[in-house]
Sequence to fold (400 residues):
Amino acid sequence: MRYTTCLASMLGVVLVLSPLAGGALQTQPKQEPKQQPKSQPAKQEPKQQQQQQQPKQGQQQQKQTPKQQQPKQGQQQQKQTQQRQQQRQQTQQQKQGQQAQRPQTPPQYRPAPLPAPDTVVATVNGEPIRAGELIQASYEWFAATAIEELILERVIEQEARKQGVSVSNAEVEARYKQQLQNAEAQVPPGMSLDDFLKRNQFPPSRLFARIRSQMLVEKLVERQVNLDDFVEYSQIVIRIQGNTPEQQEENTPAAEAKAQEAYQKIKEGLDFAEAVKEYSEDPFSKDRGGKMNWQDMKFIVPDLRQKLLAMQPGEISEPFKMMGSYMIIRKERTGSQASPEEQQELREQAVRLQIGEYVRQLQAKAKITNTIVQPFDPTTAAPPSGAGGPRPPAARPVPR
Fold:
């Protein structure tokens, strides 16, 4: 833990000296009336002694004046210590509050308690293999992978708490059961589903935790999805014929003239879908009235993206040259104009496209220490020198 609670406090100890001799003097006046002549000089002596002691007491008070400041300094230190303790308690309460926000994992999906080191977990010709050996081997062989997965889960959980995103155990369990159904089809004959998952390093505890993290990050990414980043459009494509640059340059005027003719007829009232059938040379969209599937603006070539961003739904562009063709496009809809069913599909598509980059950004801004293995990012690593150089092992795919 980064913070610990300190229960020690500054204690200011004040010693009060009681005048016990004065108390004894108060008990003696009962005997004084019997010895009045002798007691009179005795009474004067204390007065003289008091007068002689007064300057001494004044000097002592002057000497004690600096010491009188010590209780004040002790009180200030005590206040500062109390403030520090309050700050630590508040920090701990915040941490406890954050932990309370996370739903408790159901018992059947929690990791099993570790066996005692001397527990026999296997035998080979009567020779035992004990739990201590297994734990040590597992740590040495798999800790690098496990710690990175735990770090990733923690990064996602912290961001989810920060944004107030959560998933219930019921939601996680529903997808967990779907995963089991998908896995059942891959179980070899004669092997149980439980053994199959364990052999693939996905016991119930890990699979449940992985699904929970996956659902959290999906919700986080979905929050930043902008449906208007998706666009639906139709197109007329007229190819510039020729296999060489010289041939294409020679045939460019003909292609441009054909595109201008199609555009003019559309302006005169020809339905765009009919113009597609008459003029378009794109085999993939011609039979669908030129309509393209929903496209994410980020993955459209820049020239076409700029055209679409400048257009309004229903607007038709003039012919323009792009990628060896002349094109005429009509902007149909943006994502916010899609049906509810289409919008859900677009959100899911956006999450799939953005989730990898989103997680990388979370990891990049997190302050992470890892004493098991140094972080490695294959996207930023320099390529190996020479052909056939060493490559990092491929990551195990996430079960879906």
Summary: The chain has ten helices and six strands.
